[in-house]
Design goal:
With 219 residues, the chain is an alpha+beta fold. The protein has one domain: 2-Layer Sandwich (BirA Bifunctional Protein, domain 2). The chain is built from three helices and nine strands. The protein has a six-stranded mixed β-sheet. The protein has a three-stranded mixed β-sheet with strand order 4-3-5, with no helix packed on it. Helix 2 packs across helix 3. 36% of the residues are buried.
């Protein structure tokens, strides 16, 4: 699934390209496409990109994953990945947003980038009528005591990989097979469970609107 798009690098920064997958994308396919796009961005031959997709049901293990946090190893396929963080679940009904941005033109501040991802999710939830918030010592966004969104990033040649996942209407039972992000006694929730918007196209539109609010194009 090619994500490349040539641009005239002399014309100044190009708008962030948004791509939406119409069917679930196998995890290994997504990784290969993302790596290729990031290489193009680093080379200056493609613009920044946000790729919205869903995956088949699976678990991913970040660089800090502890085997003891994989509670049901036979439940779903498990993929090792180069992103930061621990175990998380991906599957239908969850909107994954892979964010490929050139941090070289945005200050090369990874902490500020992660904070901006958090702000993006919080702003999106606010537009959907929910109060999302950070929790000290935890990665991701919560509504009340339950986690609704995860964040996991990697930076390569100052271009970002991976991104965020927002629970729209996934099968929350699959979260019981792991200790999500290493958090004890933390439940997962979703827009559906909270009675909020579940139409994926509307969620996508809200993500895009909030992104423009948080991530201002560099000049």
């Amino acid at each position: 699934m090619p994500l490349s798009a040539a641009i005239d690098v002399q014309a100044g920064p190009a708008p962030t390209e948004w791509i939406t997958a119409s069917t679930p994308v196998p995890y290994e396919t997504a990784l290969a496409a993302m790596e290729a796009r990031v290489a193009d961005i680093a080379a200056g031959t493609a613009p920044d990109c946000v790729w919205l997709l869903e995956h088949p049901p699976l678990y991913t293990a970040g660089t800090s994953a502890d085997e003891n946090e994989l509670l049901e190893p036979e439940r779903l396929p498990v993929f090792r990945t180069g992103r930061g963080g621990r175990y998380t679940y991906h599957g239908p009904g969850q909107r994954v947003a892979y964010v490929m941005l050139d941090l070289g033109s945005r200050g090369r501040d990874v902490r500020a980038y992660v904070a901006a991802l958090e702000d993006w999710l919080i702003a999106t939830l606010a537009r959907l009528g929910l109060a999302g918030e950070r929790r000290p010592g935890a990665v991701g966004i919560f509504v009340g005591d339950a986690k609704i969104a995860s964040i996991g990033v990697r930076v390569k040649r100052w271009v970002t990989l991976h991104g965020v996942s927002l629970n729209v209407a996934p099968d929350l039972a699959h979260f019981s097979g792991i200790m999500p992000c290493g958090l004890h006694d933390t439940e997962a929730t979703s827009l559906a469970a909270l009675g909020a918007e579940t139409d994926m196209s509307r969620v996508d539109a809200t993500l895009k609107e909030s992104f423009a609010q948080i991530f201002v194009r560099p000049r």
